[in-house]
Every structure is written in C-alpha cells, then in structure tokens.
Design brief:
74% of the residues lie in helices and 0% in strands. By secondary structure, the protein is mostly helical.
C-alpha cells in the first residue's frame, strides 16, 4: 500500500510541476531555451493523448515514468531560481482554485503531427519500389 501511495503522490507532484512550468513560460525573465523546453513539456504532459499509448505493454508507460520526469527535471534546472519560486507560488494558487489538470490542444496537435510524420515515413519506406528490386 505504501508503494501505491508513493506513486499517487509522485503523480500529483508531477502535475503540480507541469502547471508551474506553464507559469514559468509566461515569466519575462525565463530565458528562451528553458521557455521552449517548458512549452514542449507542458504541451506534451497536458495532451489528452500520449505519443506512445498506454495500452502498449511497457513502452506505453515509459513516457510517463521516464521521459516526462526527465524533461521536467531538465526544465526545472534551466529556469532561474527566482522564476521557479514565483511560478511555484502561482501554480499553488491555481491548484487551490482548480480541481482538474488542464488540457493542451497544442500537445494534442504535436502528438498528432508526430504520428502523421511517422505514418508518412513508414508509407514511403515500404512503398519505395527501389527497396524491393
């Protein structure tokens, strides 16, 4: 039971960090590279669909367990400390008035574009007659 509670607490902390990163993207003193990384992380984390669907055994959870926390860690270490603190306060205020995590239409769009690029790439790869000569 303790492991389950730790996982729930970890998931809750990740959700809070994602909203905090959103506020960091809006802060004028956030440098451009951390801002770009934060936008990507927030869009992907709040996307209603995953890049690798969860129903795919093992791989489906790797993005949630490894990729997302790693990207959040990188973004947090690139953001200036005072921006991090101010964004955390704004995030805490936001969570006190909202009960659900927000969703990102940009994230949905990015995931769909990546899927489309992969599908076109596979189509071109397997339908290139030079490959089978």
């Amino acid at each position: 039971m303790e492991l389950l509670q730790n996982l729930k607490n970890g998931a809750k902390a990740l959700k809070r960090k994602v909203v905090m990163l959103w506020f960091a993207t809006q802060h004028p003193q956030t440098p451009w590279l951390p801002k770009v990384i934060c936008i990507f992380v927030v869009a992907y984390a709040l996307s209603p669909i995953d890049l690798i669907p969860d129903f795919i055994p093992i791989l489906g959870f790797l993005d949630d367990v490894i990729l997302l926390p790693a990207l959040i860690w990188i973004a947090l270490h690139l953001i200036p400390e005072h921006v991090n603190e101010e964004s955390t306060l704004k995030s805490d205020e936001w969570w006190s008035t909202h009960s659900q995590k927000p969703q990102s239409k940009l994230g949905l769009f990015l995931v769909l574009v990546i899927w489309l690029i992969c599908a076109v790439g596979l189509y071109v790869f397997f339908n290139d007659s030079k490959l089978f000569d």
